[in-house]
Amino acid sequence: DQEQVVFLTTLSLEDAVYFYKEMMPSYDWNEGIPSVALKKAAYLTYDKDGRRAIVVMTISGEKVAVRVTVSEK
User: Fold this and answer.
1) How far apart are CA 57 and CA 68, in angstroms?
2) How do 36-37 and 2-9 pair as beta strands?
3) SS3 readout for the chain
4) Do the Cβ atoms of 69 and 3 come closer than 8 Å?
5) Dihedral, CA atoms, 37, 45, 53, 26, nearest 10 degrees?
6) Which residue(s) pair with 44 in the sheet?
7) Is 58 exposed, middle or buried (0-12, 13-18, 19+ CB in 10 A)?
8) Per residue of the chain (73 residues), what is the pLDDT tens digit?
9) Cis peptide leading into residue 25 (ω within 30°)
10) CA-based Rg of the chain, rounded to a whole angstrom?
11) Cα angle vertex 29, ends 26, 32, to 5°?
12) What is the pTM of this model?
């Protein structure tokens, strides 16, 4: 089973990555491997209770597109 949400944010890519790196652990999500943050995209993984969250961020014009997918590991 898989759940997904997609949205745009006015945060910079750097700030959006920082937000997830700060907030996910506060909800008991552990950062997994691989997690990569580049100048124009980021790919972060988190694990919790047999589930995996994948956060993909890309620059879309002046905004950042964020896709969060949560599924069973």
Assistant:
1) 9
2) unpaired
3) CEEEEEEEECCCHHHHHHHHHHHHHHCCCEECCCCEECCCEEEEEEEECCEEEEEEEEEECCEEEEEEEEEEC
4) yes
5) -90
6) 55
7) middle
8) 899 999 999 999 999 999 999 999 999 999 998 789 888 999 999 999 999 999 999 999 999 999 999 999 8
9) no
10) 12
11) 130
12) 0.92
Q: Report residue 48 as tokens.
A: 């919790």
Q: How many CB atoms lie within 10 A of CB 66?
A: 21
